[in-house]
């Protein structure tokens, strides 16, 4: 194999596919990036068997061939090359020479034959979404997936399509994040659970332009993200996702509007009082026109008042501050509406159009000491 | 005690003195920042017994007093306060209330009585140096102090004053860094060894302006850095520093000029071939007009040619790449001159005026395999 391409183009491609290189694996070949120049295009591929990424880079094929190169080592070399044309040449023993200006690296690659190619999946009609929308919706929900594998379904996100409507849901047993997106066109109904890890990697490599689109293909076992010159194939998580509709009651006893930035900063300050491992709740004392936010811990105490616009009953309720911070951080609106029922029922942060719903369970606290 | 000051001013002061808070200590009081408002000024102090820092901040003293507050906790709180006026008030039980806008923190401080104040040292005539010069000279030499305590003197830097000349030296047994600085005035001769750790902290907190000065005071056991509203007192390292003059022979067999950036980038690329713990040298093959730089390791090999302007003999010599990278990174000149004697004698990177001299010992390598 002999190919030439620009360093920037090669570095971009390597950076994209590197996201699918497993950090730990018993299959040494998976630690490689495959350069496939056996046809008319130069394709880079990496695959950790759950997520596979391939991307086509611009360049010239002088001699067709395939080579697998250690991903970490190869990407370190590419990154440090001068910003000029790079030549990659291999011989029959997989010895690979990488040349750029006067720099000349020789490393030993592997035959591409054992490489686990990305499965070829028959594609139906694509679902169209802007890169920006997909990247945003992942950011706005990914924080509330569960980080342990006790319940596999909780480590993924529900992608549900109904007509021209996409709903994305994540939950971890203490909170639920829901985002509703209107699509330009209508599609066949689908309901799948996508691994959170795959979504994290996808959101890292999507440029996120509002103009450029992502083509989504959903099959029984896979989801495919196609954008620019890149294809990401991820397995789906099997099983039926949680029925969340019954948790989303619309009744409330207390409703208030509050400045998002003020509330976020205030909770952020309150968390200073919580040392690691210590599970002190923040207490919200909500009365007409005012919320007193307070926290007591071994380290000391903190309290602060915030002006609110309240309807309904007064309430004294406690929360894990992190859950509030996570949700507030991904809401763009300046003012948010918060709905509460009682100190043991979940609270909702949501907008009037249900574009977003963040449900957070309160925690018990001893009123005597707070 | 009751004081008020602006958040930015308080945060700046806390950030400065925090550099002298020990990370590990058996004396809990040293983990504190002392706020001393017992006179007409608000002074913050921290002291780890080797380095002590005090800084005066602007503010109003409403009630005189002293309090010691846990440094980490206090600085976290200060950093997260709104950008406005802060009030710090203590009561007889050292309970401390920090108020800013509507935020209100209560933490428990300690009596300032047990605090290890910075020693009061009689000051002689100050040595004047611009903040920029001091910050630069530390950066340009600090990397070659030894990082273990086997030889205490190697963990510090020599500050030698002769007339209007300041020489700063560091060495670790494999290399020597020397910087010579011309002072505006002449001073009494002095020769002291300053702990590297103190210099690192000083260089972090000096703003580094070319206009503003640092007053240096040197006594038998201490060095004092005075700048802006801050005083840093560091112990000196006892003992006689190494005699380096006899190592600085001016004879050479090979001299060449080389573009600094090209050499640095090339060595940087070569280090890709060196995995951690592997002590592979880079080999420089210096002939008329050309240096071939190469490295061979288990991972593969790399070679690159760089144009040079050479006088004297050809030479084949090996180095630890890190030592070259460290020295080249702190040289501002676009072109450097390198002097060599033979493959076992130290090489020198230096300018014509001896403003800087970097001496690097070569390493043995097996010519057969390289």
From TrEMBL, chains A, B:
Residues 1-118 form the DNA polymerase III beta sliding clamp N-terminal domain. InterPro entries: DNA_clamp_sf (IPR046938), DNA_polIII_beta (IPR001001), DNA_polIII_beta_C (IPR022635), DNA_polIII_beta_cen (IPR022637), DNA_polIII_beta_N (IPR022634). It comes from the Bacteria. Confers DNA tethering and processivity to DNA polymerases and other proteins. Acts as a clamp, forming a ring around DNA (a reaction catalyzed by the clamp-loading complex) which diffuses in an ATP-independent manner freely and bidirectionally along dsDNA. Initially characterized for its ability to contact the catalytic subunit of DNA polymerase III (Pol III), a complex, multichain enzyme responsible for most of the replicative synthesis in bacteria; Pol III exhibits 3'-5' exonuclease proofreading activity. Forms a ring-shaped head-to-tail homodimer around DNA. Belongs to the beta sliding clamp family. This is Beta sliding clamp. The lineage of its organism: Bacteria, Bacillati, Bacillota, Clostridia, Lachnospirales.
């Amino acid at each position: 194999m002999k190919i030439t391409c620009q360093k920037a183009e090669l570095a971009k491609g390597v950076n994209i596919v590197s996201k699918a290189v497993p950090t730990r694996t018993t299959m040494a070949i998976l630690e490689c990036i495959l350069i496939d120049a056996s046809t008319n295009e130069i394709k880079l591929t990496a695959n950790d068997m759950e997520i596979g990424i391939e991307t086509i880079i611009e360049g010239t094929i002088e001699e067709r061939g395939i080579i697998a190169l250690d991903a970490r080592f190869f990407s370190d070399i590419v990154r440090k090359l001068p910003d000029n044309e790079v030549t990659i040449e291999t011989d029959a023993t997989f010895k690979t020479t990488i040349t750029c200006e006067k720099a000349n690296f020789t490393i030993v690659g592997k035959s591409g034959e054992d490489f686990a190619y990305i499965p070829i999946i028959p594609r139906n009609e694509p679902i169209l979404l802007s890169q920006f929308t997909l990247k945003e919706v992942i950011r706005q929900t990914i924080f509330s997936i569960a980080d342990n594998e006790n319940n596999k379904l909780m480590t993924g996100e529900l992608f549900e399509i109904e007509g021209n409507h996409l709903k994305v849901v994540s939950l971890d047993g203490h909170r639920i994040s829901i985002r509703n997106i209107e699509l330009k066109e209508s599609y066949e109904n689908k309901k799948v659970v996508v691994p959170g890890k795959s979504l994290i990697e996808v959101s890292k490599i999507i440029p996120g332009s509002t103009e450029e689109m992502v083509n989504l293909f959903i099959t029984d076992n896979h989801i495919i993200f196609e954008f620019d010159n890149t294809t990401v194939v991820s397995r789906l998580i099997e099983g039926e996702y949680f029925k969340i509709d019954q948790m989303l009651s619309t009744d409330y006893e207390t409703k208030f509007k509050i400045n998002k930035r003020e509330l976020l900063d205030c909770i952020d300050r309150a968390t200073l009082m919580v040392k690691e491992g210590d599970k002190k709740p923040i207490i919200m004392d909500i009365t007409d026109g005012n919320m007193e936010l307070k926290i007591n811990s071994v380290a000391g105490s903190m309290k602060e008042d915030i002006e609110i616009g309240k309807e309904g009953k007064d309430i004294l309720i406690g929360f894990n501050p992190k859950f509030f911070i996570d949700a507030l951080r991904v809401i763009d609106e300046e003012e948010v509406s918060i709905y509460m029922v009682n100190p043991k029922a979940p609270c909702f942060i949501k907008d009037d159009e249900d574009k977003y719903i963040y449900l957070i369970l309160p925690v018990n606290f001893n009123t005597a000491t707070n």
